[in-house]
Amino acid sequence: MENINNFVIQPTEAHTHTIIILHGRDSVASEFAGELFESQASDARTLPEIYPGFRWVFPNSSMLRSKRFDTEMSQWFDMWSTEHPHDKEEMSRAGIETAVARMTDLVKQESKAVSLDHIFLGGISQGSAVSIHTLLRSELQVGGYMGFCTWLPFHDEIQHQTTTIKTPIFLAHNKDDEVISVENGEQMRETLQHIGLEVTWREYEEGGHWFNEPKGIDDVVAFLARCGVSSRNRSATASQSTG
Prior knowledge:
This is Alpha/beta-hydrolase. Belongs to the AB hydrolase superfamily. AB hydrolase 2 family. Residues 6-225 form the Phospholipase/carboxylesterase/thioesterase domain. The chain is an alpha/beta fold and 243 residues long. Helix content is 33%, strand content 20%. The chain has a seven-stranded mixed beta sheet with strand order 1-3-2-6-7-8-9, with helices on both faces. α3 (93-110) crosses α4. The relative contact order is 0.14.
């Protein structure tokens, strides 16, 4: 189901968890969801097959004018460069603040259906950058955060802050990512660890600016298991599919 704000995939079994996951720059929610759900774990299953009780919420970003390219594009906030995402960073502040306010409201809305510790925040690239700022600024104790091929805007400010949240963090980055280099992910990991957060870091040789497959999907499943999320085992899935 899609509206102008969100693309939502409902659970196929009893609703146990919600994951709010944000697309990257120059993308849209339905396209991102479709491509993500084609990604398979090492047993050839997709994430909706592994987690039939998940409600998947894919927010759509706004169309914002790019100062650098002088055109409107789908983005959560304006930025000058993906190669050097901290360049002219101040131009990103207003857009991040607007997106964070919206995501905070969305988390609170979803918490009417499941508890906060059963809600996960995440995203890829620019979407991940919004999600981590939502986590840090709102200090909502959600079940976990998952960031892929991303960076931490305003990391120099964040490393001097304190946080009371204990949300587990999962970060994954591919060495051959030519959009957001892996060094940006490493810097993000170090900053989050510095302020006291528990960070699981996974680095892969291949995958570009996307999810590593299948190992990266396996690692997502393993992280969610450490957060207390049960997955449907393969034998149960096979039994159901054969009637």
